[in-house]
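Curious: why this fold?
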Amino acid sequence: MQVSERGTTMEQLNEMQLKTVETQLKELFPQSQQVFVDRWPEFNVILCKPPYGKEGDLFKDTCVFTKDEASFRNILGENNIIDWTKFLCLGTSLCYEEMVMVVASERKVPVNKVSVSHMMMLQDPSRLPPVESAIESMISSLDESHADLVNKTWKFGNTENSFQMIRNMIRHYPSCCVLDAESQLPIAWVLTYPSCAMGMLYTLQEHRGQGLAKALVSSMSRRLYSQGFPVYCFVEEENTLSYNLFTNLGFTEDPQYRAAWFDFNSL
């Protein structure tokens, strides 16, 4: 338990307590993160922060899930939870945008709204279409030698920090890719973030229109579901192509909810 300068307490959860959180937040439960709540067990806000200590860690998201804006604001005001002198990417509900901007102004920290996305979830992977045998035989997992290719094609990548993050994702979390039959290099891929969300779905331009993305999402979804993980992803509002792909595969969303990411102290 940590006591703030204001006298409020924040409790870092142990393994048994995390199991309780997983039950309540199945669709949002993160892996390998520092998890804090405003109180236990009747918490109003949960903050999931990646451990910092390795190259690329600063590029990882800190996510906040809350039922109460006042509690959320209190956590953002705690100096011993968030280091406001470093780069921070904060993910939360878009409905808290105004409050986040106010806190940034009060702390005199530069802030930028980076992305607004649909949160798409798959409840029943058994309804996914079968993967064509010709494509299935080409599906493999990414390895660390592919990190540079993924980094160069990712919208938010092409930096040293993003390269380190992607390499760590490939090393520690599930991924799927389609390998070219001749070169044995990836021509399409999808990764998994530390929060369990699928992401960075990409197909090289010259290989599009062959159903590779659909095959990868289907394969990854079945894999995650079989291992007991939630099956979900975030799709940016302007990315209608990906939105239609996931919708056609049976992913659904809460139309009233939008996820947003904010950068503080941009790199």
